[in-house]
Amino acid sequence: MNTDPIADYLTRLRNAIKANHRIVEIPASNLKKDITKVLFDKGYILNFKFEDNGPQGVIKVALKYHPLTKIPAIRELKRISKPGLRQYRDSKNLPRVINGLGIAIMSTSKGVMTDKEARKENVGGEILCYVS
User: Is the pTM of this model over 0.90?
Assistant: First the structure.
């Protein structure tokens, strides 16, 4: 049993990037699927696929690298809100990651979105992670 599935998701991505893997398989959940969609929409991953193998299903993520230098698109993944200390922000106090160059993925009442989208929608929520 895993106590923090989002931290496990981020760690699997981080380890696959450090090992220069092209594809990583992650056990699926609805929140992980939403985070994967946000990463794809913002250009941090190349592609993804949801497969319903077994009781839980799997997310297959194709990682994105620069074609010449082989530098990964994701440089840093950092978990912010943890099970022992949840981090919530209202719409006026949303964080900026690397002065707007990175994104903060948030879980809001209107779904999972980035900090920029949450500012536009004028909603706050739980800050799940920073991506840069």
Answer: yes
